[in-house]
Every structure is written in structure tokens, then in C-alpha cells.
Amino acid sequence: MLQSSSKYKALMQKGIENRNAIIKAIVSCTSLVVFGVVLYSTVGVYFLPAWRDITTLLPAIKFIIIGLILGDFSFAFSGKGAALGATFSMKSFSFVWHLFNRFSHYCQSYPFSNVIKLNGKQYYTIGFKTRSYLCFAELYHLFYVNGTKVIPACIGTLLNAEGLAYWAICDGGKSGSGFNPNTQSFTYEENLFLAKVLKERFDLNCSVHANKKGYRLYILAGSMSQFRDLVTPFFHPSMLYKLR
Predict the structure, then answer these.
(1) Residue 1 pLDDT > 60
(2) How far apart are CA 235 and CA 222, in angstroms?
(3) pTM score, two decimals?
(4) Which of 81, 101, 150, 207 is close enough to 132 for a disulfide, judged by CB 3.0 to 4.6 Å?
């Protein structure tokens, strides 16, 4: 964890310089690429409401969002559009910057930092949020009922291996010989449904356990090899410790 804002600013500056170099290389590149694989950054660009209304959500980004929203990310609904965002411990800087690079096409500003005080100690956090878009509102209405996050009935058709990986990175960790996604915010029935989806979609055997915060999904030890094979190709290097 960083101990001063100056170190954070240095990391931010290095990240911005690296990103600018990448953008310059992309702009000068004449190779053919699949549409949507590389999205240019719109940080600092003012988007008129009409522009945001016609912005589309590419499938590659949508699959990632499905995993993120199952974890720590949340949507903020503005009455028409929705913005996506989350805050992490500063020790997750590398992963957050990676995510920001994936989503910078939808962001007005660079990641932000905050200082929180807990038990007399200061802790630095980092996060980012997108602009509010109609295309994000479609997912908001799937995952929220009266402002509460829920598991949509169609989650089995929305979640792929990449989404599963981002879910595990954002809000889960190894527990014993298995893996615990932090699903305590969902009901017992929703946890059972998620276990059913993971079995049918990925052949992962899961159980549901009660704890002091509610109910929690557990990927059984016998499915860990299959789970690692599915998600490792999409894991950010700084987060691979969660699978060990």
C-alpha cells in the first residue's frame, strides 16, 4: 500500500505517459484489426447528451462488465443513463489501471484517489467511473430492482469465461482448497441459482454456505483445476495470487 499521495501521483503520471505512447502507436498503425478490440480514449472530451445516447456497448466490453457487476462494481442510475464505477485498495493499482485502459473510451477523467481513516490509520484507495450512458442503463435494469443489486434470470447467457475471471478478480479469493466469490449481498436463492448456472455453464461444482454476512458461494476443491483453466487466460498478472 502506498504511504503518500506523491507516490500515487508518480504512478499516475507513469501510467498516463505509457498510455499516451500506446495511443500514439495505435494512431500511426495501419494494420487491420477487428472492430472493438482497440477503443481510443475519450478522457477529457466533453460528450453532449446526444452523443452519450447513441454510444453503443461493444460485446467485448459487455462480457467484462457482467463479471465486474457480479463483484464490487456498481451502477449509478441518473434517471435515464447509468454510470459504472468502483473503488479499490491502492495495492490493486496495476489492475485498476488495466481496467481503466479497457474502459477509458467511456470515461471523462482519469482514475481518482482517496484517503480513508480506519482505526486511526490512513489508507489510500483508487477507483474510476464512467460517464452515464443509455447502453449501461440496459444492464442496470437487468441487475437492479428498486435500487438493489440482483441476479437476473438470464445470467447464464451473459456470463462467459472472461466475465467469470473478472468476477473472481474483483470480489473473490482462494479459501482452503476451493474458491469463494463474495456473494453475501445476494439472497440464499440467488446463490443457489448462481451455483446452478456455474454447473450448467462451466461444469463447476459449487456449494452455498451461511456466514455472518449472509450466504456465500463456494467453488469446490474438485472443480478448482477446471476453474483455473477457464479464468487464468484472462487474469491480470498482479491478481494471479488469488488462484494459488
Answers:
(1) no
(2) 21
(3) 0.84
(4) 81
User: Is the predicted pLDDT of residue 51 greater than 70, yes or no?
Assistant: yes
At 11 the pLDDT is 64
Cβ contacts of residue 123 below 8 Å, gap of 6+? 1, 89, 90, 115, 116, 117
